Amino acid sequence: METEAPRKRRKVEQPGLNVSADSWAAFVQDVEEFEVQHVQGKGKFAFGFVEGPLVKALRSGDWVLLDEINLASPETLECISGLLHGPTASITLTEQGSLEPVPRHPDFRLFACMNPATDVGKKDLPPNIRSRFTEIDVPPPDADKDTLISIVNQYIGASALADKGAVMNVAEFYSAVKDLAERRQIADGSNHRPHYSMRTLARALTFASDTASMFGLRRAIWEGCLMAFTMVLDAPSAELVTALAQKHPLAGVRNPRSMLMREPQVPHSRSADEFIKLGPFYLERGPLPEDPADDYIITPSVEAKLIDLARIILTRRSPILIEGPTSAGKTSSVEYLAKRTGH
C-alpha cells in the first residue's frame, strides 16, 4: 500500500488577522449604530446642524467683519438682517429647529466693508440693509499727495537713501497714469478703462524693491512700472504710459538709453549657471533638464511677449493671467518658458 504524501498545513496565523477582541467589539457597535440610523430610519441618514463663525461669534462676543457685503446674495443678507435691528438683536436658527434667538454676547460687534457701486462688477447694498449701518467713508490713500509719498517711501525708501528724488518721481508717475485712466485717455486690450489702485502701485514697488540689487533702483522702478501699468494696455495706450515712465521714474538719469541697455547683475551669491537668461531677466532653472524647444517660432512680437512674462516670473510673487483671442499663443508661450527653464 502506497504511503500517503504529507498534507500541507493551512496557515491559520496570517498577517492582518490578529485583531483584538476590543476592535471586534467596536466594529459590532458601529454596525449596530448604522442599523439604527439606516435600517430603522428607512434608509435616511441623520444630519446635524453645525454652527458657523457668525453664530459662534454671536455667542462668544467676538468681532465679525463681512467683507464685500454688497456682493452677498439676497438670501444671505436676509439672514443677517435680524442682527441689525438693535444692540440686543439676534437671529433664530430655524434650520436647527430652534424657536428662541441665539443669546447675543454684549461684546459682539459687526462690521461690514464694500466698494462703491460705481466700481466694475459691483452693486449697491439694498436700502433697507444699508440704513441700519452707521456709515464711514474712507477715501483712497492716493488722494492725498503726502500720504502717497509716504507709502512709496515705505516700499523703496531703504533703496533710495542716495536718490531721494526717486520717491517723488514715482508718486508723480502714479498720479499722471491715474489721471490718464480717469479721463479715459488709455484703454486695456478689451477697450475698457483700466483700473489702477494702490494695489497696482504696490505691485510695481515690490518688484523694484526685490530687484534693485540686480538692476539699480531707477532701472528696477522702470521695469516694475512697465510690469504693473503697461502690460494690460493696448499698444497705443502702452506707449502713452511708457512715455510717462520715461518722464518721471527716469527723470534725472543722464543717459536713460545706456542704463536700460546695461546688463543686470546675477542675483547675489548665485552662479549664472543656475539661471536661464531671457532678455534682461535671469529665470531660475527648475528640476527638469532644459529643453531648447527649437521648433518654437520666435518673432519680434513673440519675443516681446516672452520678455514681459519673464519680467513677472522673475520675483516669483504674482500669479499671471494671460488674456487674448484664440490662437494668440498664450498656452505655447508658457510651455516654451517651462521647457527652457526646466519646469
Short characterization:
The chain is mainly alpha-helical. It has helices at 21-39, 53-60, 74-80, 127-130, 145-156, 165-182, 198-215, 217-230, 235-247, 256-261, 300-314, 330-341; strands at residues 63-66, 109-112, 275-278, 281-284.
Order of helices and strands: HHEHEHHHHHHHEEHH
Broad structural category: mainly alpha
Helical content stands at 40-55%
Going across the major beta sheet, what is the strand order? Answer: 1-2
The biggest sheet amounts to: 2 strands, parallel
Looking at the structure, what is the overall shape?
extended
Average pLDDT, rounded to a whole number, is: 88
Number of helices: 12
Number of strands: 4
Distance between the termini: 75 Å
Proportion of beta-strand residues: under 5%
Regions with pLDDT < 50 over 5+ consecutive residues? none
Radius of gyration: 32 Å
SSE topology:
Layout: H1 21-39, H2 53-60, E1 63-66, H3 74-80, E2 109-112, H4 127-130, H5 145-156, H6 165-182, H7 198-215, H8 217-230, H9 235-247, H10 256-261, E3 275-278, E4 281-284, H11 300-314, H12 330-341
Parallel strand pairs: 1-2
Antiparallel strand pairs: 3-4
What tags apply to this protein structure?
mainly alpha; 5% strand
Task: Write a structural description.
- The protein has 343 residues and is mainly alpha-helical.
- Helices cover 43% and strands 5% of the residues.
- The protein contains twelve helices and four strands; from the N terminus they run H-H-E-H-E-H-H-H-H-H-H-H-E-E-H-H.
- The chain has helices at 21-39, 53-60, 74-80, 127-130, 145-156, 165-182, 198-215, 217-230, 235-247, 256-261, 300-314, 330-341, and strands at 63-66, 109-112, 275-278, 281-284.
- A two-stranded parallel sheet has the order 1-2.
- A hairpin with a 2-residue loop joins strand 3 (275-278) and strand 4 (281-284).
- Helix 7 runs antiparallel to helix 8 (217-230).
- The longest helix is centred in the first third of the chain and has 19 residues, at 21-39.
